Amino acid sequence: MENKLFELNSKLRGVVAPSDIYDTTLAIMYLKKISNEQNERDFKNVFKKIKDENIKLFIAELFDKYKFLVNIYETFDYDDKSATEFIENTSNEFSNFIMPENTTPKCLISLCKELLNIDKDDDVLDFCSGDGNFLYTIAKNCKCKSLSGVEINTHAVAISKIKAYLTDSNYNVRQNDVFLVDNEKYSKIFSNYPFGMQIRYIHSAKELVKSLKEGSYGNLISADWAFNYKICKLLTENGKAVVITTNGTLTNNSERAVREFFLKSGFIETVISLPEKLFKTTGIPVNIIVFSKNWKDGVRFVDARNIFVKGRRSNDLSDENIETILNLCKNDSNLSKKVSLAEIFKENAVLSPVRYLEVPGKKVEDGIEFGSVIKSITRGAPLSGKDLDCIISNEKTDFQYLMLSNIKNGLIEDELPYLKNIDKKLEKYLIKDKNLVMSKNGYPFKISVFEKKHNKVLANGNMFVIELDEQKVNPYYIKVFFDSEAGIAALKSICGGSTIPNISQESLKSVLIPNISLEEQQEIVNKYLAKKDEIEYLKRQLEKAIDGLNHIMD
Contact, 185 vs 233, CB < 8 A? Predict the structure, then answer.
């Protein structure tokens, strides 16, 4: 970068908050460009010539916060080359400048650009355009009919517009709520919408969510599928969209119905799992979904989680990595596979590539056989329906019965059916504290850790009761592993039965599990138990709310 920009950066360090250095640099360069073009040096006169209200507010706030910026502005020598170099280098891992939070990594922009295959007749939209990095890249590298962005954040809109002005880039950005954009159509759409937003906080999406509910497409919790639905509505016939999203979007059971709707509607062309730590502000792994209007040829799944260049604090995708991923999007391999809609529906419309591509016995590195950490494994009590009817009690007793229907979302219900008594010959089927209980037949698999807060509990015959060697393995860690995509794929790989999937004891013992220390296991378990406690708390709050609802007239 030119010495003058380093000189400016040095002047700002120590007197401007680190989080404001990037913004301040852009603001000063913007003012200096106007100054040069208008042949006007006085700050106040230059400021008056700013017509855009977003930019005016952005610069006014900065210069009001740091009064001395006027002096720095007056001594800074600007040129277009330095501005372009600054904007491009701030996307570089080795930049000394502070990056804005809502920035899509440069490597992901390059990958998404290739997936969209933009040509001169395309109307291109950046949906939730953030600070405009995607728009800048497309304006610089692609020819298209029109290029525009929509963003709700005032600060991000100002940054994006300043970039366009400083680099003479031909794109437009407008401030608006994306859910209020209507009567527009685009042939190509890109979106890196906010991660983790809950739909209940987005009031502008109420009508959209209502229409999904009326179509029996499920009750949305996260906003991701609402964003996706709006994006698809804005596509032209045979249009294409590429979005960046998180793992939960692909797997949450609560959103199964809406995923089925997208699949049946012919929207989903490709799903790509990407490495973790590609973003500088979060280490979570992300995914790309390619939406294509009127797509009817199944879904291609690509597992690119291990295709990256490792960095010290964040990872990156090289040009070669991107080329590899693009090739996987076109060809079958052990990392890429086209899957029919029928097969996806059998998997509860889960869209995680790992579900269809992982072979755990070969993927788990330095794994150990599950059987090596098992003390004992038995079936539940072999009671027929008639036998059970004879001992079921309508009153509370010291004996209870656990059925698969009592395991919901991986947790055992507090209220289990009561039994009049348990025959001594059935006592060997009683579940001990911290035993792992697992469904033997059927899919999806149900797995939980039994906690000794109940009375004597008898296990149903349709499940395994597994006592683990807790000197070697934490039972909760095993549950977390088998609940993961790799664990689910491992269990699927050992299933027998042509009609109803079933697992044998011997095949279960042969499954490879990751071999990590008890200390590392405990770190994972702590995260699981924290979430479990959160769920228990929310359940109690829901019960209180329902009770209050039922006594409003009291």
Answer: no
